[in-house]
Amino acid sequence: MxxxxxxxxxxxxxxxxxxxxxxxxxEIAIARQxxxxxxxxxxxxxxxxxxxxxxxxxxMSWRLIxxxxxxxxxxxxxxxxxxxxxxxxxxxxxPLIVGGLGFLGYDARTIGLLLIFFxxxxxxAMQDSVAAxxxxxQRMVVNAGFQAATPIAVACCVIVAMALGGGLNAVGxxxxxxxxxxxxxxxxLVFKDERPRxxxxxxxxxxxxxxxxxxxGMLSQLFYKSDILLLSAFAPVHQVGIYAAGYKLLDLAYKxxxxxxxxxxxxxxxHYETSGTLYARSADAFVRVSAVAGLVxxxxxxxxxxxxxxxxxxxxxxxxxxxxxxxxxxxxxxxxGGALQTVLTTRGQHTLRTSGLAFSTxxxxxxxxxxxxxxxxxGAAAVVxxxxxxxxxxxxxxxxxxxxxxxxxxxxxxxxxxxxxAISLPAALGAGGLGASVLGLVACVAVLGTFGFLxxxxxxxxxxxxxxxxxxx
Length: 473
Prior knowledge:
88% of the residues lie in helices and 0% in strands. The chain has 17 helices and no strands.
């Protein structure tokens, strides 16, 4: 089991990071060629399309993972029924959303691009269902291949569109064609493996089991993307472009916790049913690994924000450096928050997860309405960090097991001190650039070691296992 989890984790992590890097590269190319105003239009339409997908999913993919992990015989029926429902729901609500944007007075370019993005939204909705089936089977290696292929296909289509002199709409079609090409192959494979079937009478039980997941997914999308949505409503379009440039690297921090959750959650569901001690150890390890994975990019982006923006985006995006510096803290908050979401869900505390997310989403939206008109992109970035910090604390204090809650609070405290040290030590010594990054990372390791975040026993066991594996080759 541990070997399978490790293999799945490695495959999904590599493909997920590769996929996101390719998508980031595509958007950087779009931003550089089309300028910050047009890039702001692209970012707005793209986020609205993905938010629509989150509403269409209704939590059915997570329901498939949960039910299929426990009883694989349910996969075919849930997969077929939910895929059919997603297509119908998407066809019904997409025109309403496009019409609503017209009523609210959105830019005609945004509305036109959103219509074109329908193809891409359909592709992503189908991919999520297919990926859930393979996740339930613990065959995430299959997902990893298609997950990496999607952005590559999209990138090829975008390159062709831009080489032919195409503008914003051509880029939108390129996303749809590239995404659908990979999706159709993936769907054909899952039909061969699972033989999905539609049973309308099962819809009621499926939705009863998925609605909390769906509500959480919708709230999560609104929580993490309300910045772009509200910036497009309350600020000039160039502010959206500047913010999107500063935020784009954070998409890695949004994607990786989702991958980690899908890799670890099947095992955590099983551990919770069989052994409380094993569950607590696994949950704690997941949180610690997530924290370390978030601290590294946070320190690097904070200390090198102006250089990163200049190299990636060039002239016209200088203001995005401060946005990136503020949002760098979000790497840690997203990684640790994502791990805690999985802990609550696998403990059967999904209602608490959903209510915490609802409260934080409402608080962040209210703060955005105040901060964006006054401070623009910087105000939106500050609200994102504050909202994610609030959500993380709600998750920690809500963990039902007292011993696990105290342990996780200790972990969060250690991460807070480590992040503070990573910022303050280089500043106190007057270091900058690469030197500041090294000093910050050293400070993180020192603080985490002091708090027992990196237990010597575990490090010794890992080293021993690695030596034994090398010796056996």
